[in-house]
Write a structure and sequence with these properties.
Elements: E1 3-7, E2 10-12, E3 18-25, E4 31-39, E5 45-52, E6 57-59, E7 67-72, E8 77-82, E9 91-99, E10 105-107, E11 111-115
Parallel strand pairs: 2-11
Antiparallel strand pairs: 1-3, 3-8, 4-5, 4-9, 5-6, 7-8, 9-10, 9-11
Length: 117
Amino acid sequence: QVRVVESGGGLVHPGGSLRLSCAASGINFKIKYIDWYRQAPGKERDLIAGIADYGSTYYSDSVRGRFTISRDIAKNIAYLQMDMLKPEDTAVYFCAIVQAENEQKYWGQGTQVTVSS
């Protein structure tokens, strides 16, 4: 059974940093992407960053230049380094593991990030 667990969220002041982790277990297939999404209260869940199996990365305009996605392939862990955080980054952050064969997504439960003074 595939299990995806996010961690590392918390409360941080504007301008601060956090590093989120996404740990996947029970993986018996090729992973195509590991993606990070976020969902603010009353808003849709948006894709903000992703990393492909061959290392290519994607960032939304809202986080490009401030967030960095990385991946430890051997451990099936992905990270999202978030710097220069802003109050508008406040959201629940979700990790999604995308299976290569059929692009099925496996989601974690999310981790809350709150940016406030």
